Amino acid sequence: MSKEIILRKEDVPGQDVRVFLELKDGETSITAAMATDADRDNVVDRVSIVGDLDGDNDLDEDDKALLRDMVNLFLKIKW
After folding, report:
1. pLDDT band (50, 70, 90) for residue 10
2. At the top level of its lineage, which domain of life is listed (predicted)?
3. Average pLDDT of 47-70?
């Protein structure tokens, strides 16, 4: 069975940059999250998570830090 990480960036002029994360196990979405960069400096300002990212069966600051780190790296890619 395949596992996927899907990152999608929405960059609409005049609005926050939003990055959406989805983790899939086969066809099933197991985690969804969003991070925003309000001041458009390529650094995450806010995160929102539905699901456990680090596999310890709770949603806590560690999960938010993982999302923040992943999205900050993603935002460094210029395309």
Report:
1. very high
2. Bacteria
3. 93
